[in-house]
Amino acid sequence: MENLEQLRQEKYNAKVVSKVMLTPNLMILRVVTNEARATFAAGQYTTLGLLGAEPRSANSDAEYEKAAPDKLIQRAYSIASARHETREFEFYVSQVKSGQLTPRLFALDVGDRLFVGKRIVGAFNLSEAPADRDVLMIATGTGITPFISFLRSHVTERPQSRMVVVQGAAHQRDLGYYSELSFLNGAFPNFYYLPTLTDADETWSGKRMWIEEMLAAGVIEKETGVALDPERTHVYLCGNPKMVENVAAWLEQNAGYRKKKGKQPGELYIEEF
Ligand SMILES: Cc1cc2nc3c(=O)[nH]c(=O)nc-3n(C[C@H](O)[C@H](O)[C@H](O)COP(=O)(O)OP(=O)(O)OC[C@H]3O[C@@H](n4cnc5c(N)ncnc54)[C@H](O)[C@@H]3O)c2cc1C
User: Fold this and answer.
1) pLDDT (tens digit, 9 = 90+) per residue, 206-252?
2) Is the CB of 1 under 6 A from ligand 1?
């Protein structure tokens, strides 16, 4: 495409500063924007975009719907960075092999340019969890991303609040941010990390339960002291829609939680990808 460089000049406003492949289909991508963004709340998201003319990764499949070469394909991504960042942002991205944008994001190299949304939005944040209430964060897959931002931004600011991350995955390699979360678990007395695997190999000595089983068996309260009680603990769910649906239904039916919707009060916050 002759005018591809011109279109890139017009549309792109950021470039890749680092790309860490955790598996062939999971990566941590850091970008720097040309212009600073307004300050954001930990847990919010923005959009990433690339032109349809950009190449796709070597390990992707044919796209299920072909993007026009001059179309700027845009999708939402939660920001993993601490809320004080204004130009450099970190994203944790899972490749949908037949998707439109992610195979193009996976083909990026350090120094390549892309589009990053000018606005950072979303209502999934800690602003309504009082500083003396405990916070339970439950994630699968890239759903861990807003919680990394919560912790990088707030763990030192909420000493009266116990903060727990329950992270579910199939294999250990799918537990994104495992080292950072394990480090925080050792470093902060108010933080607890409970990873659990459903398909672990013999090297894994941790939990091997479904998140739904952990709730039903009272594992979280036994191990951290954090109660599944809406008066004392606010719960945040992010990730696989089935996990989110099951866990939300369990908390509503068995523990009296109410989903937070707009201005209506509630102690259960949900972000679906
Ligand atoms: C608020 C928010 C935050 C998000 N944060 C993150 C994040 O932090 N990290 C992350 O990785 N993702 C995140 N997402 C998801 C992200 O926005 C994209 O949806 C995802 O990356 C897939 O984009 P894509 O263009 O590659 O796939 P798309 O082209 O959009 O395809 C996605 C869907 O299309 C359908 N599809 C794909 N292939 C086929 C096929 N062969 N046949 C039929 N249907 C098909 C499937 O339903 C598939 O899941 C977030 C989403 C939201 C709403």
Assistant:
1) 999 999 999 999 999 999 999 999 999 999 999 999 999 999 999 99
2) no
Q: How many domains does the chain have?
A: 2
Which residue, 90, 116, 142, sits at the end of a domain?
Answer: 116
Q: Is the pTM of this model over 0.85?
A: yes
188-208 pLDDT per residue, tens: 999 999 999 999 999 999 999
> Residue 35 Cα, ligand 1 centroid: separation in angstroms?
27
Q: How far apart are CA 20 and CA 145, in angstroms?
A: 15
Domain containing residue 101: 4-116
User: CA 124, CA 244: separation in Å to the nearest integer?
Assistant: 14
| Residue among 75, 93, 104, 177 whose CB has most ligand 1 atoms within 8 A, to mutate | 75
Residue 121 lies in a domain: no
How far is Cα 118 from Cα 37, in angstroms, rounded to an integer? Answer: 7
